[in-house]
Amino acid sequence: MKTLKETSVGETVKVVKLNGSGPVKRRIMDMGITKGVDVFVRKVAPLGDPVEVTVRGYELSLRKADAEMIEVE
């Protein structure tokens, strides 16, 4: 398994599992990132944050720490 952080720009992946707990997991889920949803990686900042993704038609920015908690295939 790889994480969203390791996904290449321009790739569309399916969320398999959300790791983490409490407010961090809740924040990720509140963005609409849940198991089974497709995530398209638009852009990754060269020196770190953010990872920019498109989920359910919405453009979002994720912290790399959050992207690491999202397992994809």
Automatic annotation (TrEMBL):
Highest rank taxon of the organism: Bacteria
Gene: feoA
PANTHER family for the chain: FE(2+) TRANSPORT PROTEIN A
InterPro entries named in the record: Fe-transptr_FeoA-like (IPR007167), FeoA (IPR052713), FeoA_core_dom (IPR038157), Transcriptional_repressor_C (IPR008988)
Statement: the UniProt record of this protein carries the keyword Oxidoreductase: no
Annotated source species: Fusicatenibacter saccharivorans
Occurrences of domain Ferrous iron transporter FeoA-like (ranges): 2-73
GO molecular function, one term: transition metal ion binding
Entry keyword set: Iron
Protein name (Swiss-Prot/TrEMBL): Ferrous iron transport protein A
